Amino acid sequence: MEKRTELEKMIVELKLAKRELVLLGKSTNIVDEKIKNIEKKLASENIM
Fold first, then answer.
1. In sequence order, which residues have a C-beta less than 8 Å from that of residue 31 and are 6 or more positions away?
2. Which domain range does residue 27 map to?
3. Which domain of life does this protein belong to (predicted)?
4. Rounded to two decimals, what is the model's pTM?
5. What is the pLDDT along the chain (48 residues), one digit of tens a residue?
6. CA–CA distance, 10 with 6 (Å, rounded to integer)
7. Assign residue 27 a region: left if phi > 0, alpha if psi is -120 to 50, beta otherwise?
8. 44, 3 in Cβ contact below 8 A?
C-alpha cells in the first residue's frame, strides 16, 4: 500500500512539473513518458 501511495505522489509531482512546463511553453514529452511509466507500474500493482 505504501508503494502505491508513493507512486501516486510521484504522479502528482510530475503533473505539477508538467503544468509549469506548459506555462513556460516548453516540451512535456519527457514528463509525459515518466507519468505513463508510473501509471503502468500502478496498473501492475493492482493486478497483484
1. 14, 17, 18, 21
2. 2-47
3. Bacteria
4. 0.84
5. 688 899 999 999 999 999 999 999 999 999 999 999 999 999 987 764
6. 6
7. beta
8. no
User: How many domains does the chain contain in total?
Assistant: 1
> What would the grid cell of residue 45 be?
500493482
Cell 502505491 belongs to 4
CA distances from 47 to 1, 34, 40, 43, 44 (A): 13, 20, 11, 7, 5
* DSSP string across the chain: -HHHHHHHHHHHHHHHHHHHHHHHT---HHHHHHHHHHHHHHHHHHH-
